[in-house]
Amino acid sequence: MQNFWLVIYNVLFIPLLVTLLRIASIFNPKIARGIKDRKKLFENLIIDLTGLDRKKPMVWFHSSSLGEFEQAKPIIKKLRAERNVNIIITFFSPSGYRNSLNYPHADVISYLPLDTKFLAKRFIELVKPTLALFMRYDIWPNFCHAMKSKNIPMIIADATMQKNSSRLLPGLKSFHKNLYETFSQILTVSEEDLKNFRRFNLQGVRLATVGDTRFDRVYQKSIAARNLSLINEKIVEEKKVFIFGSSWEADEEVVLPAIMKLMKFDSSVMMIIAPHEPTELRLETLGNYFRNYQSVIRFSHLNNYSSERIILIDSIGILLSLYKYAHVAYVGGSFKQNVHNVIEPAVYGIPVLFGPKIQNSHEAVKLAQLGSGIVVPNKKKAYRALRKLFTDENHRLRLGDISRNYVESNLGASDKILSEIYKYC
User: Within a domain: residue 26?
Assistant: First the structure.
């Protein structure tokens, strides 16, 4: 069965993938950039590997993109501090690769070559990994089977498997069973994920639930963020701060009327809003909307602050640090498609609001079950939730404690994964 699926994969899927990527590169600059960057992949890899002490174990971490790499960072940082190893990091996407070139805890940073039998074999023969760790889901059959043939142990970390996953459909289930059986270990985020992986009836693979390293990463970043001063403390002093994070237009249609109404009757409430995509057009549109209700200032103009009650964030990459100023937060995306990261505000011990589409996020679902995550499906319920939180201090603090305790109770996945890594190097 293994040979059957590999033949199908290499004869049908890979040629189709190459063709689609070439066509897509004409219209998509990101794909075109990834193809261009890979042209000298092996030349650069040979140069980067030169001079490394090859007597040390070589630990290979692969992430699809920047988001998955964030989950790997707590593991890599501690591994670097505790073990004398070489570390190579690869990415599939240009965003992950280009934004991580200066990452200090790796010896080599590279793209992952296209998953052909020849390129996979060449990459593995050059790198000679002692162990390979794949973050979450980005695994490739030719690489996996090539490493399995060389008895190189492989681990999937932060693994997830929803009960309705397409990977469990007939046909696809057999393909993925064959693929997952090349791994030594699959370490899942939750017991539910573990149960769904067991439906593959995998042989020779250790399955275990260790948790989600995103909690560790967000917690580490929040500690560093507490020492940053992005906003003058006098601006938020004696204010009730509402942060509207990663807002989409569909979120704003529900939440903004509610918070504008609350601000009208409570002069102590102020809002910091960070659009999901802070393009100039989005910023201008939001700015014009707010001027009909309240005074507004852009984050980049805060040196000229003059009692404005709305701060419009026109920078990226600072939202996690901004949440430390919040008394209540709303996390966007859950009216448009999927909710964004709810751990980021929860780590500061505050209630978190979001829309109805949260099934992509185990954390949002859990916070809603615990009560500190509040689903607001319409304007009326958004206003009621915000009014209750900003008028009842004991209620707000109680829900905030639930958020904080939830995050802290889920710390430690990185250490559990490291204990498995140390079995091999």
Answer: no
